[in-house]
Amino acid sequence: MGFEVRPIAVEEANTFRSALMRTFGEDLPDEEGDTERFLAIVKPQRTYAAFDGTVMVGTSAAFDFELAVPGGLLPMAGFTMAGVQPTHRRRGILRAMMTAHFDDARSCGDVLSGLWASETAIYPRFGFGLAAEGHIVQIATPGLEIRGSTLWDQVDLVEEDDARDRLPPLYAAIRPHRPGMLSRSEPWWEHRRFHDSAARRRGRSSRRYAIASRGAEITGYAVYRQRSEWDDGIPTGKLEVEELLSTDSRAEATLWRFLVNVDLFPNVSWWNAPVDSILPWLASDRRRIQRKRADTLWLRLLDIPLALEARSYLGDGMLRLAIRDRFRRSDTPNDAGADQPDTEIYELRVEAGVRHCTRGQGTPDLVMDVNSLASIYLGGVAPSLLARVGLIEGGPTAVTMADKMFLWPVAPWCPEIF
Ligand SMILES: CC(C)(COP(=O)(O)OP(=O)(O)OC[C@H]1O[C@@H](n2cnc3c(N)ncnc32)[C@H](O)[C@@H]1OP(=O)(O)O)[C@@H](O)C(=O)NCCC(=O)NCCS
Questions:
Q1: Is residue 46 located within the same domain as residue 77?
Q2: 330 or 317: which carries more pLDDT confidence?
Q3: DSSP 8-state assignment for residue 12
Q4: Total domains in the fold of the chain
């Protein structure tokens, strides 16, 4: 192949960063402390860089995450920073880095690999399936009322120091109940959620932290930035939500009522709201809340029996699943028989809520690619929907059983791009 894939050394961090920025058509921001910030959240031993001779021509890495899945939490490698120099594309470098990533993730005990894709066509070939979506929300606030509650919580704007104490525990308490949410380490909070700079502000204000509380209990928070704008003396400012989390619907209604009533900011937006947000149902006029659906988290199951046993199911049942995997392992030649997918049969049995999944034999109830298994895994996509388009094959009884088992009442949501 003529190139080597290996982890970078600490001294190669800046070469890695600038190679990555170049693949996205950007330059390395020369902000003080950037290298240290990078090394605080990226472990050099979890990078997979490709070299042509001594030149770094490909970059990629994995973050250590724990992902909330229905009724559980699982170690997930967050595949990130993938880029190949324009001089070296379509020669199999991403494929080689992905192979190194899967080998590394399996040896680290990760049950899942997850990512956000720059383009949707890239990752299905590696077994990733779309597992969570988000809504891009634009709200025209004039005349809009938020109802939904007769009781409201208190809202306070707090300084960043206070937010540093209060946000992480609330996030950690809410995370297990929402499939798709990622763990956040202390350095992650520090460097990804609180660190601010002119490059991140992009002409907007610094972050504002609105905290909802009920007595002594914190019930939610909204993090947002503002962009002050005027049009011939008329205020047209924008308020951009970065994150909104709440423990219940009263707190959520309270925070939305606060956000849509900030004078001078009639345009409120959120780039990634949960698709089952209650906001439209709280609003006096839902047409003032425009939503566009976007793909967010893509998942790949690395250990199928472990993953299937680790999540909860809404109903008991037994399904024999034939899972096709078209991505060849590093130890399998890529040329010979590449269109022969590996197929394994798994028997999933849920009795009184107790899950067992073993490799099985015999006639399967359902046949699907590992991608489709990833798509139904977090409970946001109905197996019957994938059956309608032929992505899952099987009889109606087995498909109905799969719906009853796999669907989950809380929509998956990944609040953060990585
Ligand atoms: C996306 C990118 C990393 C692919 O790297 P690459 O080394 O050219 O990919 P490979 O040669 O290993 O390709 C593997 C397969 O993916 C396909 N592929 C790669 N990039 C693709 C793209 N952008 N769209 C569709 N298919 C793509 C290849 O055709 C190849 O298909 P095959 O297995 O059927 O032969 C590279 O194009 C790039 O750096 N793009 C800009 C940055 C970016 O988008 N990064 C991804 C961040 S999520």
A1: yes
A2: 317
A3: G
A4: 3
Which residues, other chains included, contact 326 with Cβ-Cβ below 8 Å and sequence gap of 6+? Answer: 125, 127, 341, 342, 369, 370
pLDDT-derived band of residue 31, with 50, 70 and 90 as boundaries?
confident
- Single out the residue in 255, 273, 295 at which a domain terminates: 295
Q: State whether 106 and 221 are in the same domain.
A: no
Q: What is the mean pLDDT of residues 71-96?
A: 98
- Do 272 and 345 lie in one domain? The reply is no
Test site for ligand 1: of 26, 122, 128, 330, most ligand atoms within 8 A of the Cβ: 122
Q: How far is residue 386's CA from residue 396's CA, in Å, rounded to a whole number?
A: 12
Same domain, 223 and 366: no
Candidates 237, 235, 224, 228; CA nearest to 271 is 224
Q: Say whether both 318 and 259 belong to one domain.
A: no
| Residue 360: inside a domain | yes
Whether residue 109 is found in the same domain as residue 146: no
pLDDT at 340: 58
Predicted local distance difference test score (pLDDT) of residue 149: 74
Q: Are strands 234-235 and 230-231 parallel, antiparallel or unpaired?
A: antiparallel
Question: pLDDT by residue (tens digit) across 169-221?
Answer: 999 999 999 999 999 999 999 999 999 999 899 999 999 999 999 999 999 99
In sequence order, the β-bridge partners of residue 83 are 59
Q: Ligand 1: which atom is nearest the Cα of residue 118? A: 48
**C-alpha pair distances (Å), 292 with each of 2, 126, 259, 273:** 44, 27, 20, 10
Using most ligand atoms within 8 A of CB, pick from 18, 20, 84 the residue to mutate for ligand 1: 84
Predicted pLDDT at 24 = 96
Interacting residues of 54 by C-beta distance below 8 A, sequence separation 6+: none
CA-angle at 171, arms to 217 and 296, nearest 5°: 145
Q: Provide φ and ψ at 300, rounded to 5°.
A: -135, 125
| Predicted model pTM | 0.96
